Amino acid sequence: MASTQKQKKAAPARAKVRPAGFPTRQQVMDFITESETPAGKREIAKAFGLKGQEKIALKALLKDMADEGLLDIGPARAFHKMGGVPKVTVLRIVDVDDTTLIATPERWEAEGQPAPRIRVVERGKRGALTIGDRILARTEEAGKGWLAHPMKKLAKATEMLLGVVEEMADGKLWLRPVDKRIRKDTPISDIGTAKKGDLVLAEPTGRPPRISARVTDILGDPFAPRSFSLIAIHKHGIPHVFPEAVEEEAVTASKLPLHEDKREDLRHLPIVAIDPVDARDHDDAVWAAPDEDPANEGGYKAIVAIADVSYYVRPGSALDREARKRGNSVYFPDLVVPMLPHQLSSDMCSLRAGQDRAAMACHLVIDAQGKVKSFRFSRAIIRVAAVLAYENAQAAIDGEQDNELLEPALKPLWACWALLRKAREKRDPLALDLPERRVVLDEWGKIVSVAVRERLDAHMLIEDYMIAANVAAAKALEAKKAPVMYRVHETPGRDKLVALKEYLATFDIDFALGQVIRPSTFNQLIKKVGESEEKEQIMTQILRSQTQAYYAPQNMGHFGLALGSYAHFTSPIRRYADLLVHRALVGAYDLELPAPKDKAIPDRSSLSQEDYENMGRVGEMISGHERRAMEAERETIDRYVAAFLSAHVGEVVKARITGVQNFGFFATVEGLGGDGLVPVSTLGAEHFFFDEAGKALQGVESGDRYTVGQRLELRLAEADPINGALRFELPDNPSPRGSPLKRDRTRPKIHRGRPTNIRHIGSSRGKHKKR
């Protein structure tokens, strides 16, 4: 009996005897570690030529190694070293450390071990990766850490869902998306502690087509003040909370001495800041006076004084890393997400009236023809005489409002600007005077009005002074052969010009493609149009034909401004690019000040070696952050406009067609903005042709034509503040079906495919063709 028991106990050990030629544990480990592709059981068996019973033995070995903590089983049953990362895996970018992107594995199943922070190594331009992006990457160990080499940027298929909890009549809960591009709701499988009506973040679970949502974060009431901005912040992943270490460093930096004895003292000059009435920070101020030099008769001297942010935010500091991560401030109607903590952005770096402030001063000498004859830069101390709203400065100049600074400050500024304007007119930059919407809120965050901002001479005055200083900064750095973070705007590409030519042809306007394209080329087109009602839509189409401006250390000129060299210098509180230009000027012109006594603050305020080496990468990064901010700001205004219009659902409004597609046309309410769709299915039963070149839908039987720019009256059928979407109908259609906030889920769904009453005319087709 004893002998039998011993045999039974020994049996498991005999089962683990490996076949001859079977790989050792170390060989398996080496193969998994060195494999360029995910290594599952099949790949390991193939590599070692294992068959039949050997595969069964391999399965047992891999299970043993996993049980012993030597291996993890990753996605798709692939193995990787315990505590390690698969050689090829999906990563999500979660942070930026200086200029290096940091990623973590999208799936991490090693219990008791935090997911590793992997440094992403980018080679060349792969599409300007940023926080939130998913990548397929090849990984490798490097020292005590890991590196990832991106192979492919992946779609954001598993992005968090942002929406509002809705309860249906049957008691089931659904997540209604805040993104108007997402057309269907998602059933909620796990609501947590959220309630009906809450704005929430959720993660998708399950597999298509049975995707559901699991609520992870409750953001609150979607209609509460600031919620529209909160939606945009979360949707776009905009960093909006400063780490404690950054806040503490801002307090420390704000106490740095001004070094009055080492700065140029400009406190005796009546320098003024002219800003929007609702400006939260003031980073530029201006002064001008006639030039007393007989050699410059009729000319002026001017100073553009900019907050000396580089003195407080130094390379390598926690403030610097956070500012680079943000790239820019983001301005919403109800709040600002600043690039720098409030201790600096709205206090020590803000040029407040009557208070001594550190400034970087651009001194300009302008001749009688408006040409900048010379310039120099200095670190200065200023005391702003007044902070004026554009409207008040304009009223003082127009004689409609008394102001004690009219004679000493404002009149000289306007006289000097008259010269700068001469030079601007000679340069003939792109002149697209398109309306800008402004949302006005009361003290409780409720909408008072949505209106178009008035364009005043005061706006153009400040704009021209800033442009002159920006050009001077670029040229000053070029003269010293110092690095420049240029603001680049390239000439429009041929594809967009061809599309513009086809569009203009529908108005019988000729546009020759063979000519040299300059900004004046487009200005002449606008002059041809005159004050006709098509002017605004033609200007909009010209704007769409332009390339998008970006930041880069290589100079490609600024097409729109008709300038050969241009850099952003005038807003370092809210733009990281300007901060880099300031640092470059400090180094190039030996403007460094004594090192801080507090060793927690870096010694230098000029460009660091890291700044030099990473100019290209940083330019890509902050250009992406700028686009992110613009989209977030535009979407938020759309939500406010929809909220404002939600009280007018069912009313007929004056609108203008802004876009035409085969499924309908988009229109915007005159004076308010906010695009809404008129589905072609609501235009009647007749067939419509889609004229792609003419951007129009035309009825076959009636001849009714709907084209971009056309003004017409429409009934507002829906206005959804949550996603900013509007829907219109023709006034003679049946009564509107109501706001989606009260919609009946039993209502038949709108068919998403091509409408049955559409035919298509391609841009290169000469005859109607079914599609």
Automatic annotation (TrEMBL):
Assigned keywords, A-Z: Cytoplasm, Exonuclease, Hydrolase, Nuclease, RNA-binding
Gene3D superfamilies membership: Nucleic acid-binding proteins
Protein origin, superkingdom: Bacteria
Catalysis: reaction(s): Exonucleolytic cleavage in the 3'- to 5'-direction to yield nucleoside 5'-phosphates
Any Pfam family hit: S1
Gene Ontology cellular component annotations, sorted alphabetically: cytosol
Principal location class: cytoplasm
Enzyme Commission code: 3.1.13.1
GO biological process: mRNA catabolic process
CDD domains cross-referenced by the UniProt entry: S1_RNase_R
Region (Disordered): 726-771
Compartment annotation: Cytoplasm
Signal peptide range: none
Family of the protein in this entry: Belongs to the RNR ribonuclease family. RNase R subfamily.
PANTHER family hit by this protein: DIS3-LIKE EXONUCLEASE 2 (PTHR23355:SF9), RIBONUCLEASE (PTHR23355)
Function as written in the Swiss-Prot or TrEMBL entry: 3'-5' exoribonuclease that releases 5'-nucleoside monophosphates and is involved in maturation of structured RNAs.
UniProt protein name: Ribonuclease R
Gene: rnr
